[in-house]
Amino acid sequence: MNNEEQLIASSHQYNVKKECPMPSPRELFKLAYEADRNRKFDEAENFYRQALKLNPKYSMAWNNLGWILFDQFQQYKEAEKCYKKALKYDNRNFYAWNNWGILYYRQKMNFSKAQECWEKAITFNPEFGNAWNNLSVLYKFQHGNPTKAREFEEKAIKYQNSEQKQTPTSNLTYNFCSECGSTLEASQKICDVCGLER
């Protein structure tokens, strides 16, 4: 069985529409995400790579592939390349900024770069709880500033699982795509990155 036949056979176990012989990048992203959730990391990696062959500018696929390479396979250099590509195609991808910060913190022990990445993530999504939490850990254990750490921890708790975000400098409301996390203007109906309609 060749690669395409394997991909099609594998995709059918995840209920991809039968009338579509080759899944779209978005369908492959969903398959990868589901495989990742089911701890089938080799399959998830394969699906993300297939999605990226079809759409090399798919920022969230680059981000998620980077996370698997970093967290599951300890391929740190490859993961960093993925985060860079994710940000090349969507510099506002706060998930990629956050994950790149984790790589700097855990692997490279470069705390100032980690902080820069997390602050960048918060710039693009001021209510992204994960980045606030990471800053809290950084300030507690690396900067020795428990007061600032507690302030960031409170923000992390406040913003966990928040659906709708507002920028602190304006009254403009932004949404974030539930599929890929990209920033959407309040009136935007289709995500520019993954094509999800809301």
Main beta-sheet annotation: 3 strands, antiparallel
Structural shape: globular
Low-confidence parts, pLDDT < 50 over ≥5 residues?
Answer: 163-173
Report how far the terminal alpha carbons are from each other: 38 Å
- Walk across the major sheet and give the strand order: 1-2-3
The helix/strand series, from N terminus to C terminus, equals HHHHHHHHHEEE
Helix content: 55-70%
Q: Round the mean pLDDT to the nearest integer and report it.
A: 83
For the CA atoms, what is the radius of gyration? 18 Å
> What structural class is derived from the secondary structure elements?
mainly alpha
Strand content range: 5-15%
Secondary structure: number of strands: 3
Number of helices: 9
Structural features, described:
The protein is mostly helical and 198 residues long. 61% of the residues lie in helices and 5% in strands. It contains nine helices and three strands, in the order H-H-H-H-H-H-H-H-H-E-E-E. The chain has helices at 3-12, 25-37, 41-54, 59-71, 76-89, 94-108, 111-124, 129-141, 146-159; strands at residues 164-166, 173-176, 183-185. A three-stranded antiparallel sheet has the order 1-2-3, with no helix packed on it. A hairpin with a 6-residue loop joins strand 2 and strand 3. Helix 2 runs antiparallel to helix 3 (41-54), helix 3 runs antiparallel to helix 4 and helix 4 runs antiparallel to helix 5. The protein is globular, with a radius of gyration of 18 Å.
